[in-house]
Amino acid sequence: MNRISKLAVGAAVAAAFVAAPASAQMGGKDIVDVAVEAGSFTTLAAALEAAGLVDVLKGDGPFTVFAPTDEAFAKLPEGTVEALLADKDALTAILTYHVVPGKVMSSDVVGLTEAETVNGAKIAVAVEGESVKINDATVTAVDVAASNGVIHVIDSVILPPQN
Questions:
Q1: Are 109 and 23 in contact (CB under 8 A)?
Q2: Using alpha carbons only, how large is the chain's radius of gyration in Å?
Q3: How do residues 45-55 score in pLDDT, each as one tens digit?
Q4: Bridge-partner residues for 66, per DSSP?
């Protein structure tokens, strides 16, 4: 990674920690609590509740969550979120595709080309210039600490491959 990329990643890490609540930085809040407190993941929180995954992501972990923002969910075609909320199996498949077992920090992510998700399918990881892509989503904030893992914020919902 060149010097500019390292500086950009470092700045993004610092910004993520400034944006995260102090209690999250100290590891007191789990992934779900950190996401809810951030205020920009209400759709994700509702989806986790509908899929019955809240207790899992409040568990010991560690987990790495590539968390789409409310704006990311808004990019989906009209009616998609509502349809997913009504289809627990499809919703669970998509949500678990956003979770990687273990605590994968940004310094680890940039060295990967793929990672296996809790869903069982792999996500593609690519460094493109000064940004990191997870499939077609761009990582917009990194290393948001939680007591049971880490959150990396992404700008799009990623979809598992069709079998």
A1: no
A2: 15
A3: 999 999 999 99
A4: 152
Rounded Cα distance, 61 and 76, in Å: 29
Q: What percent of the chain shows pLDDT beyond 90?
A: 78
CB 109 within 8 A of CB 143: no
Domain count, the chain: 1
Q: What is the pTM of this model?
A: 0.82
Residue 161: asked if its preceding bond is cis (omega within 30°), the reply is no
Q: How far apart are CA 66 and CA 142, in angstroms?
A: 9
Asked, for residue 146, whether it belongs to a domain, the answer is: yes
Residue 25 sits in which domain range? 3-154
In a domain, 47, yes or no: yes
CATH number, position 16: 2.30.180.10
Q: Residue 163: inside a domain, yes or no?
A: no
Decide if 53 is inside a domain: yes
**Residue 95 structure tokens:** 């949500």
How many residues are given for the chain?
163
| In 69-121, beta strands by DSSP E | 99-101, 114-116
Q: For residue 148, count other CB atoms closer than 10 A to its CB.
A: 19
**Type of residue numbered 125:** V
